[in-house]
Amino acid sequence: MNHLAIDTATEVLSVALRVDGALSRAFHEVRDEGLRHARLLMPIVDDLLRQAALGPDQLDLVSCMRGPGSFTGLRIGMATAKGLASAIAALDALPRPPVVSVATLDVMAAASGPADVIVALIDARKGRYYAAVYRDGRRLSADLDVDPAGLLLYLGRILPGIDTKEVLLCGPHVSGFMNNVECRELPDGVRFVAGPDYRGGYAPVLLDLAERRLQATGYDPVDQGPVYVRRSDAELSRET
User: Whole-angstrom Cα distance, residue 28 to residue 44?
Assistant: First the structure.
């Protein structure tokens, strides 16, 4: 399977391409240059395809982050993935575009490695974070939109029933969160630990999770869109 994975959920842009032939080859590029995805994404895709000596029509699967994350970033990533997949479906007469989207926080948690309790988080601006809590690879929460105090309160309710001394934080905004949160507010003896390489891009992990999702549930429905968790400022402005 030739699989292109696109991560535009945050300001860290990451694209990975897996090519399966006699040997499996993987290509990965990261740009940590702010929200310039509209300008950078397609040149990176073109570059990876050239490295692999592939044409876009030779892709078997395109995957992207579903959200939460940057409103604009998610739209760019999903529109690009669905556009490429729709072209592939038209060329190959497929009944559905070969695109799969995966929850952003699930990918970040999967990239963090083994830990008793994992909190994947993204800076949601306005002093809040998108977050999800995991235990032994299983979700304990829905996608949360909380301030640090709210997240600490949630953890304070669930951690007393879990035998752990560490909560592993993952995602590209871990350092900012840890700089603004007093670890002593956690239950006695429990501390936050920052996961490794949290600005290294998540597209390589997206490759694996998207292929597992494809095996489990197939391609995305044609009307699948980004998951935002909260309404955009533009929507709120229209109401007022």
Answer: 9
Q: Report how far apart, in Å, the C-alpha atoms of 37 and of each of 34, 52, 95, 164 are.
A: 8, 22, 30, 39
Averaged confidence pLDDT in the chain? 91
Tens-digit pLDDT profile for residues 130-162: 999 999 889 999 999 999 989 998 998 888 888
pTM to 2 decimal places: 0.92
Q: What are phi and psi of 213, to 5 degrees?
A: -65, -40
Structurally, at CATH architecture level, domain 3-104+200-239 sits in 2-Layer Sandwich (3.30)
100, with CB counted inside 10 A (0-12, 13-18, 19+), is: buried
Question: Where does 113-194 sit in CATH, by number?
Answer: 3.30.420.40
**3 state DSSP class of 8:** coil
Question: Contact 10/206 with Cβ under 8 angstroms?
Answer: no
